[in-house]
Amino acid sequence: MERLDKILAATGRWSRKEAKNLIKMGRVWVNGVAAVRPEDKVPEDGVVTVDGHVISLERFCYVMLHKPAGVISSTDDPRETTVLTLLPKELGRKGLAPVGRLDKDTEGLLLLTNDGQLAHRLLAPGKHVDKVYYAEVAGQLDDTDCQAFAAGIVLGDGTRCLPGKLEILEPGDACLVTIQEGKYHQVKRMLASRGKPVAYLKRISMGPLTLDRTLPVGSWRMLTPEEREILGVEGD
Ligand code: URA
């Protein structure tokens, strides 16, 4: 059971104040009866309409963003442009947050959601979720780099990483890196520790979710029902 004004605001279409006004104006109905009080509780199977249109009561929202370079993966920053500025205003009101961070200059798959449990399932270290990155480096990668990744790279400051996977792409200065952790600048530091600094980095996948190749850099879309299913979630 959730408050009516909260349910309306959670759609992202109205602020809590606007929702209260809609209710006052008699434009909101619950189960066929005009609603009177914003604080009235709505049962999970309740049918809410605004001006006769049924409002979806699904709580969670899942957005795939093809993050461009130049924006930061946080929700609020006084100086920098954040990934949220790439989404429409209505979505901004839904309390979305990026699932894990990408560096300002990293491109690629960024999932944004207000489903904290999914974020935890994808990010918690014990969950061992694979993240795959495409990297271009200065220098030539070779088998000794692959072996070092498989053994567990030791970063410049002595931090030991869990074993990862390095697949070299032709002609040898590009690769796919698979890791299950999310240490600060991890992929860049792993490759730098091999003397192959990263020139370009892009996240391709996170667990079962893969960046949509048809999604232009800087664009977003809602996850499809199939993508939500493979992540084991419901919602918009
Ligand atoms: N590793 C990095 O070094 N940077 C990122 O943005 C993500 C992973």
Q: What is the arithmetic mean of pLDDT?
A: 93
CATH 2nd-level architecture of the largest domain: 2-Layer Sandwich
* Ligand roster: uracil
Radius of gyration (CA) equals 22 Å
Helix content bin: 10-25%
Number of domains: 3
Poorly predicted tracts of residues? none
If you consult CATH, what is the topology of the largest domain?
Answer: Alpha-Beta Plaits
> Which CATH class of the largest domain?
Alpha Beta
Features:
236 residues, alpha+beta, Structural Genomics Hypothetical 15.5 Kd Protein In mrcA-pckA Intergenic Region, Chain A, Alpha-Beta Plaits, 3 domains, 9-stranded mixed beta sheet, 4-stranded antiparallel beta sheet, 26% strand, elongated, binds uracil
Question: Short summary of the structure?
Answer:
With 236 residues, the chain is an alpha+beta fold. It has helices at 4-10, 16-24, 89-92, 116-123, 143-151, 186-193, 225-231; strands spanning 2-3, 28-30, 33-34, 41-42, 48-50, 53-55, 62-67, 97-98, 107-113, 131-137, 165-169, 174-179, 198-206, 209-210, 220-222.
Structural topology:
Blueprint: E1 2-3, H1 4-10, H2 16-24, E2 28-30, E3 33-34, E4 41-42, E5 48-50, E6 53-55, E7 62-67, H3 89-92, E8 97-98, E9 107-113, H4 116-123, E10 131-137, H5 143-151, E11 165-169, E12 174-179, H6 186-193, E13 198-206, E14 209-210, E15 220-222, H7 225-231
Parallel strand pairs: 9-13
Antiparallel strand pairs: 1-4, 2-3, 2-5, 5-6, 7-9, 7-15, 8-9, 10-12, 10-13, 11-12, 13-14
Uracil binds next to helix 6.
